[in-house]
Specification:
Radius of gyration of chain B: 13 Å
Structural class of chain B: mainly beta
Radius of gyration of chain A: 13 Å
Largest sheet of chain B: 6 strands, mixed
Structural class of chain A: mainly beta
Helix content of chain B: under 10%
Largest sheet of chain A: 7 strands, mixed
Oligomer: heterodimer
Strand content of chain A: over 45%
Order of helices and strands of chain B: EEEEEEEEEEE
Distance between the termini of chain B: 37 Å
Shape of chain A: globular
Number of helices of chain B: 0
Helix content of chain A: under 10%
């Protein structure tokens, strides 16, 4: 079946501009996660959605970052007034969020470059 | 102290050998443990997960968990050049719900 999809695959933007990254989870997966991976760094958790609500948004690095999820499906991560340190690969994952079946499957990522 | 630590590597093994990847974690409340493989320029791909102490085998891969020692490992038997990748250890910590905390990964090279 279809996996997690993300768009765009690559995004180049100028410092100060806003960007929106999109994630479409695996059908039926109620949980959705955003992570980012900077060059030479491990994966860093950003935010977790269960349905349309975000019980854990503690990983968002600043108030320039926000995310929403609608219809229990697609999610958008928005970065306002981008900075060069925001350059990274932004990865989305989804899971069934059931006890014993909480494995997360990742999408291909969006590579963001802030010039 | 990092929450999840892995051998930074790189680890190099000859084709056909056993590759051993190690991971330690700091939160004793951690419940679930995952190994992901990440090829260069690609996203992480789930290899195995383990919840209970002991060994779990899946084909050429064996995950080992020792909660008392806060240690989880991945063994790859009969290593192939196609196994060359970065292996990420991830821990789901009881107190943080579903978030995964990742180690920085171990880069494995299998030489033909």
């Amino acid at each position: 079946g279809a996996g997690v999809s993300q768009s765009p695959s690559n995004k180049v933007t100028e410092k100060g501009k806003d960007v929106e990254l999109r994630c479409d989870p695996i059908s039926g997966h109620t949980a959705l996660y955003w992570y980012r991976q900077s060059l030479g760094q491990g994966l860093e958790f950003l935010i977790y959605f269960q349905g349309n609500s975000a019980p854990d948004k503690s990983g968002l690095p600043s108030d320039r970052f926000s995310a929403e999820r609608t219809g229990g499906s697609v999610s958008t991560l928005t970065i306002q007034r981008t900075q060069q340190e925001d350059s990274a690969v932004y990865l989305c994952a989804s899971s069934l969020r059931r006890v014993g079946l909480d494995t997360q499957y990742f999408g291909p990522g969006t590579r963001l470059t802030v010039l | 102290q990092k929450e999840v630590e892995q051998n930074s590597g790189p680890l190099s093994v000859p084709e056909g050998a056993i590759a051993s990847l190690n991971c330690t974690y700091s939160d004793r409340g951690s419940q679930s443990f995952f190994w992901y493989r990440q090829y260069s320029g690609k996203s992480p791909e789930l290899i195995m997960f383990i919840y209970s102490n002991g060994d779990k085998e899946d084909g050429r891969f064996t995950a080992q968990l020792n909660k008392a020692s806060q240690y989880v490992s991945l063994l790859i038997r009969d290593s192939q050049p196609s196994d060359s990748a970065t292996y990420l250890c991830a821990v789901m910590e009881e107190t943080s719900g579903s978030r995964l905390t990742f180690g920085e990964g171990t880069q494995l090279t299998v030489n033909p």
